Amino acid sequence: MHVYPQPQQQPQQPRRSRKKVWIGSTVAVALLAGAGAGLVYWTTDWFDGNGESVSYAKPSAGADQGQGQGQDNGKGAGTGGGKQSAAPSADPDVSLPAGPFTEFKQTVKLDDGTRISKAKVKGAKSGFEGSVWVWTPKEYDRPEYAKSAFPVMIALPGGNGNADNYWATMPQLGLQKAVAEGAAAGKSLPFILVMPLLNPDAKYYYDGSDIPGQAKMGTWIGEDVPELARANFRTYKSREGWAFMGNSSGAFVGLKQLLQKPDRFRAVIANGGEIVPDSPLWKGHQAEMDANNPEKIAPKLIADKGPEVDVLFQYGTKEGGRDRMEKFQQQFGKGPIKVTIHEIQGGDHNGWDYVRGMKDGQLEQLSKLMKGPKPQ
Question: Are residues 268 and 208 in contact, defined by beta-carbon separation less than 8 angstroms?
Fold first, then answer.
């Protein structure tokens, strides 16, 4: 990891058009098919069991003795659908799922037996209805962790982020594999991944914000999505159990949410250098736009002297954006706001290279700031 302490401000390059950030999932899968095995994720029957119900939060009386783990569909043990411990944890920071429980449907089964599943959810606070995908690591279903909470990473896509969230629908990118391998090696934590829709339609970017007169996407991502995770999974009450990771427009949303809610979230991995809001829907709402601008929010957090948050920027040497990150670091990387910049050699503005950067150190750096599961 390269840290640039208080660098001099450089002339800002024109921002890349977010419309060019990402190709559609269908096209990307087609490209992957012709790119050879080097880009393929775990070779597996991804469709085995797709559409089956996955219930993450049904208590099991025997779970605290290490019993009752595995799938609810009667087809044998596995991960991604294990039952919860009904017994309280010795750690008062552990929050056991209390519902309302969500019925998820499997969308992908990975080679290690873990599963990505999906549910359509209507946010109680935002009123927005959209899809959310989830993934749990193998450790989540192990008996020794039945009373332990797990840290949550809310993973946000770039591009439109409307029809899907490519962190869930394109496991070829390797996010789940990176988390699993990092945990197995003892380098990083076994995060629960929660992957929501980013925008309500494909026409506009909503900047993960409650723009007046529009869908309340700030409330959806910052309140409804975490509440869904708390209702269905063993999570931590404290902010040390919660983080964001995002690409491009998703990186902006994660950064903004962190600075707006430092009492609820600990850190963000922000990929690609998007720092200020730019949705055309802000027209006529300057005050509200400023309230969702990290460059306007950061000074207040500094003046309040905390709580401390970490912004883990990363970018590829084949893309722009470093100047914006350095400017933010120079102006706001002080007091409670810790800013680092990781350079991905040969990396470009895409999910594959950002995952490579996470494997090279960003996941490990994030894990040092977070609270991990504890066997009992």
Answer: no
Q: Measured between alpha carbons, how far is 175 from 190 in angstroms, rounded to an integer?
A: 12
Q: What is the mean pLDDT of residues 121-130?
A: 98
* Interatomic CA distance for residues 289 and 292, integer angstroms: 5
Altogether, the residues listed in the chain come to a count of 376
Band of residue 136 on the pLDDT scale cut at 50, 70, 90: very high
pTM over 0.90: no
Q: Tell me 263's DSSP state.
A: T
CB 307 within 8 A of CB 262: yes
Asked if 370 contacts 363 with a C-beta cutoff of 8 angstroms, the reply is: no
Q: Specify which residues 245 forms β-bridges with.
A: 155, 269
Longest dimension (CA), the chain: 62
Give me the numbers of helices (H) and strands (E) for the chain, helices first please. 11, 14
Ramachandran class of 359: left when φ > 0, alpha when ψ lies in -120 to 50, beta otherwise: alpha
* 65-104 per-residue burial string, b: 16 or more CB within 10 A, e: under 16: eeebbbbeeeeeebbbbbbbbbeebeeeebbbbeeeebeb
Phi-psi region of 8 (alpha: psi -120 to 50; beta: other; left: phi over 0): beta
Beta-strand pair 267-271/242-247 = parallel
Q: Which domains does the chain have, with CATH numbers?
A: 47-367 (3.40.50.1820)
Distances (CA, A) of 332 to 294, 295, 302: 10, 8, 8
Q: Which pair of structure tokens corresponds to residue 352? A: 């594959």
Q: 315: which 2 tokens?
A: 């970018």
